[in-house]
Amino acid sequence: MKISDVIQSADWKTEKHAPVIEAPEKVKAGESFAVELSVGKEIAHPNTTEHHIRWIKLYFKSDNSKFVFEVAASEFNVHGESTDGANKGPVYAEPTTKAVIKLNGSGTLLATSYCNIHGLWESSQTITVE
């Protein structure tokens, strides 16, 4: 079995678990830009003690390389847990994060996310460097 056998893909506009990548389609070489990542943008994902997103990761695969680079990783560690019971806690983390990066060449941004019930999800977006 391979990791690709268990990771799921879908259009984030119709599937609440697929990570959303918001980044420009074109950037200039060496200039900083923001990549925003989230889960549940169009269809809200539950954010409860029982059902939540634990992490989102961002990778970059250059068109000129066979290797992928891990760019950023964000964990979401509170989901309403409390000694008073599930969903009675004072804080919930929303599965949203941002990375600011620079690129020297075109490639593909890839994002993965993990739902504690529905497993691994992925999405991608090509990006052109001018």
From TrEMBL:
Family: Belongs to the desulfoferrodoxin family.
Domain Desulfoferrodoxin ferrous iron-binding: 10-123
Record keywords: Electron transport, Iron, Metal-binding, Transport
Organism (species): Pelosinus fermentans B4
NCBIfam families tied to this protein: neela_ferrous
SUPFAM superfamilies associated with the record: Superoxide reductase-like
Protein name in UniProt: Desulfoferrodoxin ferrous iron-binding region
MF-aspect GO terms: iron ion binding; oxidoreductase activity
Domain of life: Bacteria
Pfam families hit by this protein: Desulfoferrodox (PF01880)
Cited InterPro entries: Desulfoferrodoxin_Fe-bd_dom, Desulfoferrodoxin_Fe-bd_dom_sf, Desulfoferrodoxin_SOR
